[in-house]
Amino acid sequence: MMKRSFSIFTSVFLMMSILLLTACAGDQDSGGGDGKGEITFYSPETPDMTKELGQKFEELHDGSVNVQYAGTNVLVNRMMAEKDNPQGDVWYGGGGILPFEAAVDKGIVGKYIPDFAKDWDTVEDGIKVKHEDGKYVGVEVFVLGFAYNTDLVKADEAPKTWDDLLDPKWKGKIQFSNPAASGTATLMVLNQMMQRGEAEGWDYFKKLVDQANSMPDSGSAPTKAVSMGEAHIGVGFDFMAYEQKAKGESVDFVVPDKTPILVNPVSIVEGGPNPEGGKKLIDFLLSKEGQQILANWYHIPINPDVESKTPLTLEKVKSHAVDLDIDWVNENYDRVRNEWKEKFQ
Fold first, then answer.
1. Residues 74-124: tens digit of each pLDDT
2. CA pair distance 325, 330, nearest whole angstrom
3. CB-facing half-sphere around the CA of 60: CA atoms within 13 A
4. What is the C-alpha to C-alpha distance for residues 266 and 101, in angstroms, rounded to an integer?
5. How far is CA 332 from the centre of its chain?
């Protein structure tokens, strides 16, 4: 009788132990119930800056941040490949909203708008600051324009419009990144197509390619080339130039008369393993602490309580903004990139 009781007790104990271990393992694997655990953070933005954002979040909140850095198009392709078993939780950055808009119908971004941005209109001052269905929200403002080397170009001689780049005096002195690889350059191409029409747009880029001495794959490379004197003019975002200037390089920036001014967004990854942690990370990016890090890297913060460290603010640049036809972008994003490859590579 005693042996039988011992046997039953042992069986019940073992069963309870197995159930407990299984439950614990499930909690550790998901990390999604309370936001604790690892948060996988996909970003093409400056690796050191993105790492700093992750570290600051870890200081302030539970959970660890695993930063996964790659180019925008590489990350989008990765999320598409992982669609049936998502590995990321948050996707931040891609040279503005266009890659995010193109990704909405791909089923790789989920719906989440932080409380901080819930009262924003979808479009503020002519700039789309969040997705109408909550698929992304802007965390900073990017201005596409011209970096120039102040030792090689006088301020009053620097180009002020996109047509100025075709001036013969800049032949062999301009760099812009490769639209087949760079989200920054894709924005440049799509904008010109929308403003000029496709026939005139392709003619414009045929001339611009002849002006360039290089088309590197990285969106930041033309500005770095300007800082080293390898180019007089480089097409890029504002923060790229001001970051170089802050390092003591001979670089300044021109906001063209009419140019893309857009937010750089963040999205929750659809079906990611730690959605609650991902939401907390997005909240952090819009908080004063997160926005201050972006400002320290010379990005224009979207939170009005954080001061820009560059001469530019949303208020100062909004009059330069062009109207971007987002529906046209969604319909033509991949096609225009492929046509660029066929025409110029």
1. 899 999 999 999 999 999 998 889 889 989 989 999 999 999 999 999 998
2. 9
3. 16
4. 12
5. 20
Q: In a 3-state reduction of DSSP, which class is residue 332?
A: helix
Q: Tell me, what amino acid is at 247?
A: K
Residues 142, 239: contact at Cβ < 8 Å? yes
Q: How far apart are CA 143 and CA 327, in angstroms?
A: 21
Angle at alpha carbon of residue 233, lines to 231 and 237, rounded to 5°: 115
Let me know if 213 is exposed, middle or buried by CB neighbors in 10 A (0-12, 13-18, 19+): middle
What are the boundaries of each domain within the chain?
34-141+262-315, 142-260+325-344
The CATH architecture of the domain made up of 34-141+262-315 is: 3-Layer(aba) Sandwich (3.40)
Amino acid 16 reads M
Taking the CA atoms of the chain, what radius of gyration do you get in angstroms?
A: 24
Helix axes 288-296, 47-60, angle to 10 degrees: 160
Which DSSP state fits 180?
A: T
- The position carrying tokens 């001339």 is 207
Predicted confidence (pLDDT) per residue in 269-301, tens digit = 999 999 999 999 999 999 999 999 999 999 999
DSSP readout, 258-293?
SB-EEEEEEEEBTT-S-HHHHHHHHHHHHSHHHHHH
Q: Does an H or E element contain 39, and which?
A: strand 38-43
Token representation of residue 276: 């609650």
Q: Please choose, from the candidates 256, 257, 254, 238, the residue with its C-alpha nearest in 3D space to the C-alpha of residue 246.
A: 238
What pLDDT score was predicted for residue 249?
98
> Residue 170: what residue type?
W
Taking the C-alpha atoms of residue 314 and residue 141, their distance in angstroms, rounded to an integer, is 7
Strand partners of residue 235: 146
- Could you tell me which residues come within 8 angstroms of residue 199 by beta carbon, excluding any fewer than 6 positions away? none
Report angle CA 286, 221, 102 to the nearest 5 degrees.
50
Q: 34-141+262-315 and 142-260+325-344 share one CATH topology?
A: yes
Gap between the Cα atoms of 46 and 224, Å rounded: 13
Question: 142-260+325-344 has which CATH code?
Answer: 3.40.190.10
